[in-house]
Design goal:
82 residues; alpha+beta; four-stranded mixed beta sheet; two-stranded antiparallel ribbon; 6 strands
């Protein structure tokens, strides 16, 4: 199955490592460090110009990608369960 992360981004549900809420994750030092290291490594794909609400970590053919989304993590999780 596939899940739409953002209007122009679709990923396979089997490749999803995790779906994370931006507000809750960025409160912790570990969450901030993960996003900062991902940004420096070029792993982040910012798929929206709107306020980011969540991010999805995906293993795409052995390479980690982090998609920033304006869709809430709860809605994305529901999409992934279909």
């Amino acid at each position: 199955m596939y899940m739409r992360v953002e209007e122009n981004i679709v990923v396979s549900t089997k490749d999803i490592i995790g779906i994370f809420d931006m507000d809750n994750t960025t409160v912790s030092r570990l969450g901030r460090n993960f996003l900062a290291k991902s940004q420096k490594s070029g792993l982040i794909i910012n798929s929206t110009d709107d306020l980011p609400k969540s991010f999805v970590v995906v293993n795409d053919k052995g390479k980690t990608k982090v998609f920033i989304s304006s869709v809430s993590s709860k809605i994305l999780a529901k999409r992934g369960l279909r």
